[in-house]
Request: fold
Amino acid sequence: MADALKISIVTPAFNSGTSIERTIQSVLNQNYPDLEYIIIDGGSSDNTVDVIKKYEHKLHYWLSESDSGMYEALEKGFAQSTGDIFGWLNSDDMHSSWTLSRVNEIFQNLPQVDWITTLFPQIRNPQGDIVETLTIPGYDKRAFFRGEYSAVSPFALDQIQQESTFWRQPLWEKAGSRMDKSLKLAGDFELWARFYQYADLVGIRTPIGSIVNHPQQMTKLNREQRLEEERTVLKNYSANLHTPVSATIRRYTTGLPARLKRIVTRSGYVYKTQIAFYDFTHNRWTLKPRYF
Reply:
């Protein structure tokens, strides 16, 4: 395989002293050969900066100063990024030990793919142990704008897990090289909406990231605010959300045999997506269609 692609990871932080070391270690301990790790702290008043300084010799860049929130921090971080591949990991979440190697292999083997995420998002308990692995059948632009990856719809599949999502640097540029700083909790969701204007999301059959579920989790404490922000994003893109009737149709069509699913994709209620899977015969990643 060619030389490893440079991967830039940004971690935004604020008063994360009890969790950020575990996050940092989950990135650095992978020993990825061309990693550009960046941490942007929002002016923490606890020991967050002390933890960051402990690892500063392994960081590409770090900064601690007051900001307007996570999405300004991310913009600052990505502005310092020079990698081929971008991703971000919040200061209480974790990567798997194989994450960066798998991401590199997939993007090297599949130059036509611009962004990827896992079909098996994982959840950890406050101690950092994996306690649940979810399953998502696939990703589709129409499904996204029908609300199937947001709890705004009672028929949602699940969210696109930000911790497991990576994209090529040119896609970031096409989407404006920015985060929507008017949002507080759904900036990832808004970024996916912009990415979908330029490229389809490819699912991979490997778990690569995990969110740590704990009582002080921002999205848990402010769930209604996140949902309202997601509704606003979908409205801004003139999304056609599921109605009870359309969702019922969708539910019945997803239960069809695979052969019939291929036939009824034109109905708009069965989606065709591309899945990256490992071809053991040729020892490389390749794409395979899936209907869901």
Q: What stands out?
A: The mean pLDDT is 95.
